[in-house]
Fold:
Amino acid sequence: MRRGADSGIGFQEAVNHTNSAYERLGRACITRKAIPGKYLVQHSDLERKFIPESKAEPDYGGTIAPGGRAIFYDAKTTRRESLDFDNLHAHQIGFLERMALLGAIAGFLVEFRLHGEVYFLPIQVLAYWRDNVARKSLPYTFFAQHLTAARSGRGLILFDYLASIELQEQRYGADYSMLVVT
Structure:
């Protein structure tokens, strides 16, 4: 996969680049949301610290062509063999669950840095796992066995996560009700 460490840019920058390519190609318009807040300056060492005022929504939101379906997600990177629930904020999960109930694509775009792979974790799958499995994380093996890794895209698309979402929804349904976890 051409992104991140391979190309010298971070995961969120790679997501931003991919989203710009999607827009140029007419596949989607997905933007990174600005986080309201302020900078505090420590006069002793002139260090600036950003303090967010509130953040109820995830990092990214937009619309997918051709049907105009909404999409909302937060981008997460892990260097571990699992995605810890401690890294997922309750206010974002609540927002994503509400959006999914209204028909939007909602979840987390997760980079497993050790494996060089990116997956889209739908909020429905996260909620099922959270409510029915006695673990505080989702292991990489679950992603690899049940979800579709985003493949390297063509041209400007660094990794085609929209194609992965489409394949997952074809396999499990848009509400992921056909996903069976044993």
Observations:
- The chain has one domain: 11-31+38-172.
